[in-house]
Automatic annotation (TrEMBL), chain A:
Pfam families: ABC_tran. It comes from the Bacteria. This is Amino acid ABC transporter ATP-binding protein. Residues 2-240 form the ABC transporter domain.
From TrEMBL, chain B:
The keyword Transmembrane applies. CDD domains: TM_PBP2. InterPro entries: AA_ABC_transptr_permease_3TM (IPR010065), ArtM/GltK/GlnP/TcyL/YhdX-like (IPR043429), MetI-like (IPR000515), MetI-like_sf (IPR035906). This is Amino acid ABC transporter permease. It is a multi-pass membrane protein. It comes from Pseudomonas capeferrum.
Length: 244, 320
């Protein structure tokens, strides 16, 4: 489903050259759940943002469902339609109600009729468990509720792949569970997912594979059991000692 | 520390006292220099009874006069046999039955209410403000978005425009528009005035728009783009509505400034409120009264404008 080959992203700010993503090659199969782990500044978020073109990469190839991102003939907007993204800070549109948040892209991009897009939105809100908040503004919602709306907003476009960029890092601890539950449901339904997260429990329980990044390099690519019990790379071992 | 709630009204009363004191001392100061206030001369500059003279069309005699209420119907019979019937105000009638009239003689006048110079000036200031404000908003929105564009030419051109306009006085711009561009392109003075005001406002609106758009968190655009919206859809549906809410106060300030700046086009002989005021003074000699009136009329436009802006601001704040 997702193919990444020799991906390189270099940040060059005031003479300081940082290789944020350094020669990464991997692939994600359909319905696979991949969790990306690593210390902060390891380039895992940058890697994720390269997957849907929010970050322009310097070298390499990224393809989702056969569509090449680096190909100038690829319509980036058509590409992004198939890739849902959930952000650390939710990024809901504050001037729109929850329902309008879910309907905007359906209307503008998918050109769905009013009845169809609202039915879709309400069904998704039902699914993430906040149907009764449809007409509230995001500022009236708790962090966990906002993040669930953000997930529903991405799902409304019926993406083939979902990317999660630290979806629970900005949440109060008691709200982490409700968001992870929604993500687990998605995983069970066969959604292809790439999650950058610090939730080790989620990684161990839900992930099919774990990718470990440090200094932009992909150091480990293993099943969760293998990664958590017998990590090969010394930096992965040090990381796990810190977080577990 | 415990917060004590203190009554506010004595302070408001003090404010009123200060203002009344100022007004009284101003009045005393003018009476010291023996200025005679003649407010009764002012109303005629807003509206007055205009008189239209009614004249005989040819030599002849007055055949009949029928007075009903305030109007008199005068029937004239010309030497050539033609009949003429005129309605005039009865108290202005200057003839009686059987009088001879020559061609062009005034039989009487009809009166009707007409707008005075101050009313016309107010109207001119209003339409100048509305037209150049609307144009300025369009120009400013466009130029502001150009300043944020990825295209270097658009960015450079809009920067040059903003810097040129902001760096020169409006008065000079009006002169350039009227005497240089107006002469070259053969523009009317109204066109030159509106164009100068619109371009001037546009430059400031462009900076306001740019600041507003830049103040919206980057994540908003990223979220919109990640849903498949293209750059202009994201701008139109996500960024600009939020930016507009933020820039409403400075935008309202800019339009209030524009209303006041229309007074400058009086230098190219557009008879707006300020020039009307000057003309009213040349015939009334009531300098103080007319200027106070002119100031009051500008307030009459601007106070509702700022009221409108703050109401709009409150309505947009419902999503906070």
């Amino acid at each position: 489903m997702i193919e990444v080959r020799d991906l390189v992203k270099v940040f060059d700010t005031r003479g300081q050259v940082v290789r944020a993503v350094d020669n990464v090659t991997t692939r994600v199969a359909k319905a696979e759940v991949v969790v990306v782990l690593g210390p902060s500044g390891s380039g895992k978020s940058t890697f994720l943002r390269c997957l849907n073109g929010l970050e322009h990469f310097d070298e390499g190839h990224v393809a989702i469902d056969g569509l090449q991102l680096a190909d100038p003939k690829t319509d980036i907007n058509a590409y992004r339609r198939e890739v849902g993204m959930v952000f650390q800070h939710f990024n809901l549109f504050p001037h729109m109600t929850v329902l309008e948040n879910l309907c905007l892209a359906q209307k503008v991009v998918r050109k769905r009729g009013k009845a169809e897009r609202e039915a879709k939105a309400r069904a998704l809100l039902e699914k993430v468990g906040i149907a009764q908040k449809a007409n509230e503004y995001p500022s009236r919602l708790s962090g966990g509720q906002q993040q669930r709306v953000a997930i529903a907003r991405a799902l409304a476009m019926e993406p083939k792949v979902m990317l999660f960029d630290e979806p629970t890092s900005a949440l109060d601890p008691e709200m982490v569970g409700e968001v992870l539950d929604v993500m687990k449901t998605l995983a069970q339904e066969g959604m292809t997912m790439v999650c950058v997260t610090h939730e080790m429990g989620f990684a161990r329980e839900v992930a099919d594979r774990v990718l470990f990044f440090d200094h932009g390099k992909l150091l480990e690519d293993a099943s969760p059991a293998q990664f958590f019990d017998t990590p090969k790379d010394p930096r992965a071992q040090a990381f796990l000692r810190q977080v577990l | 520390m415990i917060k004590h709630k203190k009554a506010q009204w004595p302070w408001h009363a003090l404010t009123a006292l200060v203002l009344v004191g100022l007004a009284v001392s101003l009045y005393l100061a003018t009476s010291l220099m023996s200025y005679e206030w003649r407010w009764n001369r002012v109303p005629q500059y807003f509206a007055y009874q205009a008189e239209d003279a009614q004249r005989a069309a040819s030599n002849g005699t007055v055949q009949d006069i029928v007075i009903t209420g305030d109007t008199a119907r005068v029937s004239l019979k010309g030497e050539d046999g033609a009949e003429q019937v005129l309605d005039v105000d009865s108290n202005s009638l200057q003839l009686s039955r059987g009088d001879d009239v020559a061609e062009g003689d005034q039989v009487g006048v009809t009166r009707h209410w007409a707008a005075g110079p101050l009313a016309w000036g107010l109207w001119t200031t209003l339409w100048l403000s509305v037209v150049s404000g609307a144009l300025g908003l369009v120009i400013g929105l466009f130029a502001g978005l150009c300043r944020l564009s990825n295209n270097p030419t658009l960015r450079d051109l809009s920067t040059v425009y903003v810097e040129l306009v902001r760096g020169t006085p409006l008065l000079v711009q009006i002169f350039i528009f009227y005497f240089f561009i107006g002469t070259v392109l053969n523009l009317s003075r109204e066109f030159a005035g509106v164009a100068a005001l619109a371009l001037f406002t546009g430059a400031y609106v462009a900076e306001i728009v740019r600041a507003g758009v830049q103040s919206i968190a980057r994540g908003q655009n990223e979220a919109a783009r990640s849903l498949g919206l293209n750059a202009s859809q994201s701008m139109r549906h996500v960024i600009l509505p939020q930016a507009f809410k933020r820039v409403l106060p400075p935008l309202a300030g800019q339009f209030i400034s524009l209303v006041k700046d229309t007074s400058l086009v009086s230098v190219i002989a557009i008879t707006e409120l300020t020039k009307s005021g000057r003309e009213a003074i040349t015939t009334s000699f009531s300098t103080f009264e007319i200027w106070f009136c002119v100031a009051g009329l500008y307030l009459l436009i601007n106070l509702p404008l700022s009221h409108l802006a703050s109401r709009l601001e409150r309505r947009l704040a419902q999503s906070d």
